[in-house]
Amino acid sequence: MSLALAPVYDGLERKIRAAIHTRIGPPILQTWYDILKLFTKEIVVPVGGIWYTLVTALELLTLIASSTILLHISSYGLGKTALLEAVTFIVLTSIVTTLAIVRAVSQNNVFSIVGGFREFSLMLSAEPFLALSFLLLASGAGSLASKSIATAVLAISSYVISGRVPYDIAEAEPELASGVNIELAGPLLGLATTSSVLKKLVSATLTALALTSFVGLSGFSSLMAVVIATPITWVTHTIVSTILGRSRVDLAIRFLYVSLFSLSLTLVLSFGLGL
To answer: How far is 147 from 153, CA to CA, in rounded Å?
Structure first.
């Protein structure tokens, strides 16, 4: 289901962004049209051969597994019973980022390598805080205040990993000509594009799950709430990314470190002191 819906939500994002810019925009299914057209093209394998193809496919499969785990957690809500699944999700998220970096730096292309190092910088500035906040929420421990801070940290971190402005610096098209995807074409580019939109879906689902669990939902009601809240969260991310401008690479990373570190420190203190 996630694999089918992600390109549709991305098409909706393109439509909303066009409306904000007073344009008509492409049809909602345009992302699906683009992906299907890419799979009809000739297979062009860049430097790296089978290894490069395998990494690209594994990245997509890992994202599918991450999305499935989030839906599984949504079926009964965050709590002590979700702690093992939360750890598994965090490990899969790290694997996805690692595969993207490996794919980028394995190419004999300076733009791809620079994009890979930027992806690594984003990983260091967002994923540790995402892991901390998600594990705390999944443990079911902590006061209302600490859970509120954890939800805020998770919401910011999940927006960052979605790769939207101003945190699209790993691909930054005006600077790097699509960065990590510069060597891809045909079906391989189709796989990478599908991975990109699926990562946005995982980001939106993660935020929706945190919000629904924060209000105390569990069981089937939690699952339905996450399914409904996910496209709403995606639209919110779209509006935010359209309004924001692209930041300098160093400033974007610095802001993340300062804001997320401050919130996480407050979170640890609040959790430790039982406030």
So the answer is: 10
Q: Which residue has the tokens 């890992």?
A: 62
Q: Which of 88, 111, 91, 108 is nearest to 99 (CA)?
A: 91
Burial group, residue 5, by CB count within 10 angstroms (0-12, 13-18, 19+): middle
For the stretch 128-167, pLDDT in tens is 888 888 888 887 766 777 788 888 888 888 888 887 877 7
Q: Which amino acid is at 198?
A: L
| Contact by Cβ (8 Å): 6, 198 | yes
- Three-state DSSP at 28 gives coil
- Residue 171 tokens, joined: 């691909």
- What's 159-197 look like in SS3? HHHCCCCCCCCCCCHHHHCCHHHCCCCHHHHHHHHHHHH
Would you say residue 82 has pLDDT above 80?
A: no
Highest mean pLDDT among 69-73, 124-128, 164-168: 69-73
Q: Has residue 70 got a pLDDT over 70?
A: yes
Largest CA distance in the chain: 60
